TrEMBL record:
Residues that bind substrate: S13, H69, G145, F146, G147, G148, D178, G179, G180, G200, S201
Matches recorded under Pfam families: Ribul_P_3_epim
Active site: D38, D178
Cofactor: Co(2+); Zn(2+); Mn(2+); Fe(2+)
Lineage: Bacteria, Bacillati, Actinomycetota, Actinomycetes, Micrococcales
Cytoplasm is among the record's keywords: no
Domain of life, source organism: Bacteria
Keywords of this entry: Carbohydrate metabolism, Cobalt, Isomerase, Manganese, Metal-binding, Zinc
Species, as recorded: Arthrobacter cheniae
Enzyme nomenclature, EC number: 5.1.3.1
Protein's recorded name: Ribulose-phosphate 3-epimerase
Pathway terms, separated by semicolons: Carbohydrate degradation
Task of the protein: Catalyzes the reversible epimerization of D-ribulose 5-phosphate to D-xylulose 5-phosphate.
Key word Zinc present: yes
Record's catalysed reaction(s): D-ribulose 5-phosphate = D-xylulose 5-phosphate
Length: 236
């Protein structure tokens, strides 16, 4: 583990926001670390959301960095265009890419952080040599496509292995988790080694999304902060 605690970041997913009022929905999460923008094409996943023109307008108006999660096919062709739109980070699914190393380099060359996502059934081990090419590794904790699903606890060992590999390699790669993150599951995900948390329902489903972000952040940060060793106070 690094000597100082990892910073806990909360990235609300606008999949759970009101799509007719996206600008005002951004204002409701002003304390977020980034806005998670779910782009789905009804091919890579069985759902359809927004495309590049809408994301470009969000980029124009958002005071918070945008973090696009591209759940789309033909991602080698599309992802660079999202980077060109000025997004802070662009995450592609490795299962959808023909040339993930080339794509990660292309995203960085265009000024975006490079993120790579893994579906629940995709193992992390084949991609560990790629860590220096990445700024973020997204481990899906639900099947991608829909909000409101239950967190897959079976993903915790994969998060632990990814954290061990990141810390062991000395590269600065964030470990993001997406799907089913709540006040209850964030602690387990953070203890396993995730430090960036996407939350849709657990933020936009609350009366005060900003309070929900603060509460999630406090719980995640607590779990990321190493515990002080317990003193043995029993007399021998
Ligand atoms: O990528 C996603 C779905 O594929 C969403 O970001 C994710 O599901 C967030 O929703 P929730 O926090 O409600 O699970």
């Amino acid at each position: 583990m690094p000597s100082s605690p990892l910073k806990c970041c909360i990235n609300p997913s606008i999949l759970s926001a009101d799509f007719v009022n996206l600008a005002s929905e951004l204002a409701r999460i002003s304390n977020a670390d980034a806005v998670h923008v779910d782009v789905m094409d009804n091919d890579f996943v069985p759902n359809l959301t927004i495309g590049l023109p809408v994301v470009e307008r969000l980029q124009d108006v958002s005071p918070i960095p945008l973090d696009a999660h591209l759940m789309i096919s033909n991602v080698d062709r599309w992802a660079p265009q999202f980077a060109d739109a000025g997004l802070s980070s662009v995450t592609f699914h490795v299962e959808a890419s023909d040339a993930p190393i080339k794509l990660a380099r292309e995203l960085r060359a265009r000024g975006a952080k490079a993120g790579m996502a893994l579906r629940p059934a995709t193992p992390v081990e084949p991609y560990l040599d790629m860590l220096p090419e990445l700024d973020m590794l997204l481990i899906m904790t639900v099947e991608p496509g829909f909000g409101g699903q239950a967190f897959l606890d079976v993903m915790l060992p994969k998060i632990r292995r990814a954290r061990a590999a990141v810390d062991g390699s000395g590269v600065d790669v964030a470990i993001q988790v997406d799907g089913g993150i709540t006040e209850e599951t964030i602690t387990r995900a953070a203890e396993a080694g995730a430090n960036v948390f996407v939350a849709g329902s657990a933020v936009y489903g609350k009366a005060s999304p900003e309070e929900a972000i603060e509460s999630l952040r406090a719980k995640g940060q607590l779990a990321l902060t190493p515990k002080a060793p317990r003193l043995n106070t029993t007399a021998s």
